[in-house]
Amino acid sequence: MDVEPSIRDEIIRFFERNKIEYGFGAYYNIDLLLTQYISVLHKSVLPQPRKVFISRELNAKLNTISFAQWRPCLMTMKSEFERGVDMRFRLSTGSAKAYSKDNLLIAWKIHHFHFNPALKQGDMLLFAIVNDDAVYMVDVLPHNHYSFSTYRLLEIAVSNWRFLYDRYEVKADHTTIVIRSEKDIDKLWKGNINTAFAVQNKVYMPGLFTGNGQDGDAAIRTNTILNTIKVNQIKGILNDCTLKQVWLTGRTTPTLIIDYWDRNKVLHTWPL
To answer: Taking the model in full, what pTM does it have?
Structure first.
């Protein structure tokens, strides 16, 4: 039973249905196509109600005169998250491009949302960590090139919600080089160079880039799925089986579901 063509067709249908741009070459490369699909899932935010938490630093900024004009919009966004509003209209155009990488999201697991997506200049960005049931608002910064590589974002995130980053802690000795310059961080990420970052005497490495600039977590997930399928094929477990359908979950785990009949016509459901 060869399921890869069906996986490819389902992903292509998903991209076309949701108006996601993808590289033409990905159609013929199931590894790249599945990696880009999972990367799109990472960049998206499923519309569902979430609790909202605001960092100490952003709370302090809310009460300043200089931030007064932005406070109403931030409170609107807070309400949108709490009510489960579809936030795609506040995401960057890159979220609708399967081949586009979000360096900040890959490296530090931090999304960004536009206060006014229609503005070409003068917009403000909310930087936040989003999981299934909560949004952690880190900071609000002007929309400029180096806002996306601001070390202070990671520092605020870790200091307020260390538990979100505990699993990304790595062991490092005293020779670790501390990189905090926005320009240096931007250069590293553009070069797909992976590095750990020191925050409060601990070192973290939340995400990885592949050599060709893909989302490392998405690539690892892809390898796990495709290797599991190949191992089962090699063992003969899928021999004499008939594929019923492949359907996408819209989530990273499980990423897809395979329904198939075995040689005895018994229907099985296989989450991957």
So the answer is: 0.92
